[in-house]
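Shipment paperwork, digital attachment
Item: protein structure file
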Amino acid sequence: MNNLCFNRFTLRMDDAKNRRKILRWLALNYRLYEYIPSEAEIRGRFISHKPFPAEAFRRQIGKLHGDRTLFLRIVSIDLYSLYVEGNVYLRGAWHQIFLCIATGYRAGC
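Attachment content:
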């Protein structure tokens, strides 16, 4: 896919050092164009070439050694095809939500 995908994220976890690690990783690997940090969470936006770079996020979260306080929500939007995908990491597992207005990117859409 050649389209750019716009992603909104919310990141919460008890360990501030790990929150900064994930934010730094996002800034180094994607076009992070907005983030709003607070004591409890970080909200922001980044641009990617895939609706949700799942494998990259799985590898990065695996490096945190199972932090059970981690909450990560990412909503990905491809404005060209009107594709919307939501991914939530909560209590050690990923959960996915799809809303396909146009077909072609995921099976079953």
